[in-house]
Design brief:
about 325 residues, alpha/beta, about 40% helix, globular, binds ligand PBG
């Protein structure tokens, strides 16, 4: 008895009860990390136009919002700084200020939520006046090793403030090893390193760059972020970061690169994070807003796909709405 008409797969789809016996689980809230944008001031909750439903928060307003995140059992947060334009310079030096936006916010958040894992984005693009992810050399290219030195200082300032993990996203060669060495040298041997290890030069970061005010003034990021047309090198990027001491690898964007997540899953024993980026969020939001689909259904299908591809954790702008969008109808 091999095929039709004896074998009918629809038997196992006949009723919700039968389907439920075999359906795999949606990833739980503990698998999600919520990216959050921090700005200066107090009581600030500023809507981000390109990411409808998301806000830039001052520290105090962020703490207020995090009650809702923690109550849903979300796994952690990933902090991004949106500094005042006046702080920006050619090096992005304000990113490494020990009393800067992110170190202060980390301290505040950890004092209110000591058990919430707090990761910080480690990059310079929101802090440089040219919008690239590191200082430029005479040719106008990002100076790889100078950038790595700065990134190590940024990571240290976050670790000192009590971040559980730092997440370098600049795609400099050797940045993971450089940061690990600096952390260890200053005694932060327990600070976890989540590398944006396979980060593509993608057109789907647009809404984020509006949120962060971090678009390059000139040129693009193809000289440092990975080409989506070179699959083997994309995997090599992650495997090298594993060798350099990353604790968690990442594929970014996620939905357009499920094949890369699945391929990486075969090649590493480290945890893999999928970054469900701003453009992917905005696509679903726009489709739902235009009556093209039910938002919760689309979110659930897409987060399930990321976990099926092999992602252990999902960095997602939907995370703070877990109960409403994912848990709500997951039976
Ligand atoms: C910083 C950084 C970016 C994102 C995360 N960290 C933007 C970029 O590289 O241009 C994108 C996140 C998103 O689109 O959701 N380098």
């Amino acid at each position: 008895m091999n095929g039709f008409p004896e074998r009918r797969l629809r038997r196992l789809r006949r009723s919700a009860g039968v389907r439920r016996l075999f359906d795999e689980q949606y990833p739980g809230p503990e698998r999600f990390i919520w990216p959050v944008f921090l700005t200066s001031g107090s009581k600030v909750r500023e809507p981000i136009k390109a990411l409808p439903g998301l806000f830039r928060y001052s520290q105090d307003a962020c703490v207020d919002e995090l009650h809702n995140v923690v109550n849903q059992g979300i796994g952690g947060i990933l902090m991004f700084g949106v500094p005042d334009a006046t702080c920006k310079d050619a090096q992005g030096s304000a990113a490494a200020d020990n009393e800067g936006l992110i170190p202060e916010a980390v301290e505040t958040v950890k004092s209110h939520f000591p058990d919430l894992p707090v990761f910080t984005d480690v990059c310079l693009c929101a802090y440089t006046n040219h919008g690239h992810c590191g200082p430029l050399d005479q040719n106008g290219c990002v100076d790889n090793d100078a950038a790595s030195d700065w990134l190590a200082r940024v990571a240290l300032s976050h670790a000192q403030a009590g971040a559980d993990g730092v997440a370098p996203s600049a795609m400099m060669d050797g940045q993971v090893a450089r940061i690990r060495q600096a952390l260890d040298q200053y005694g932060f041997t327990q600070t976890c390193l989540m590398s944006y290890s396979t980060k593509f030069a993608s057109s789907f970061y647009g809404p984020f760059r509006e949120a962060e005010q971090s678009s390059p003034q000139e040129g693009d990021r193809q000289g440092y972020q990975a080409s989506y047309r070179q699959s083997r090198q994309a995997l090599l990027e992650s495997l090298l970061d594993e060798q350099e001491g990353a604790d968690i690898l990442m594929v970014k964007p996620a939905l357009l690169y499920l094949d890369i997540i699945a391929a990486l899953r075969e090649k590493t024993l480290l945890p893999i994070a999928a970054y469900n980026v701003s453009g992917e969020y905005a696509m679903l939001k726009a489709l739902a807003d235009h009556g093209g689909g039910n938002l919760a259904d689309m979110v659930r299908e897409s987060v399930f796909a990321m976990s099926r591809a092999g992602a252990d954790i999902i960095i997602s702008y939907w995370a703070h709405r877990y109960n409403e969008l994912i848990r709500g109808s997951s039976t």
